[in-house]
Description:
- By secondary structure, the protein is of the alpha+beta class.
- It has helices at residues 3-17, 22-76, 108-114, 124-137, 157-175, 193-202, 206-218, and strands spanning 80-85, 89-94, 100-105, 147-154, 183-189.
- A 5-stranded mixed sheet has the order 3-2-1-4-5, with helices on both faces.
- Strand 4 (147-154), helix 5 and strand 5 (183-189) form a beta-alpha-beta unit.
- It starts with a helix and ends with a helix.
Amino acid sequence: MTEREMERKLNQAVANATPDVFDRILSDCNKEERKVIVMKKMTRKNQWLSFVAGAAAAIVLFVGGTLGVQTYRANTGIDSTISLDVNPSVEIVTNKHEKVLSVTANNEDGQKIIGDMDFVKSDLDVTVNALIGSMLRNGYISELANSILVSVENDDAAKAARLEKELSDEIAALLKSDAFSGSVISQTVTKQDEVEELSHTYEISVGKAKLIKQLIALNPT
């Protein structure tokens, strides 16, 4: 056997001993590559969904918080102050929805009118009806003393004027009877330091203090 023939046989033997797995390895690589690509796509999709969900939650929290604050302010913030003065003097504070936040007395007679009634969260018209009824029952409004001063304070002039008219008409109807017809004097008021000081000094409502100030201006004597 020549040297060339020997090399040819050795090459053939090595070739026969080496397994032909190229196609299988290439196929496995392709499968793994597809798996990697799919995993990357799913990860990006999940990240996008997480981002969208987080953004949506943040928007919901922001909107909900804003609406919550606005609702809280509308329900608890002072919008109008209404004073009823005969001899008893009482002050009603309401929110934007005309629900009563508080009713306070400016003098002892006013405290007698309020008594143990709790007006918090009541409608304004219900509260006014109850207070006028108490004044009538306790004799503070009668044929001889049948005038009442209604004062409305609100930063919105149009709303103040509307409330002034509505309350005046309502009280006038309550005071109208066979025995006598009550007289209702109404006005809108704005905060003034001088008037506030006068009301605190003499323990009267801001509305009565304003009326007194106007009368003094007309006739100092």
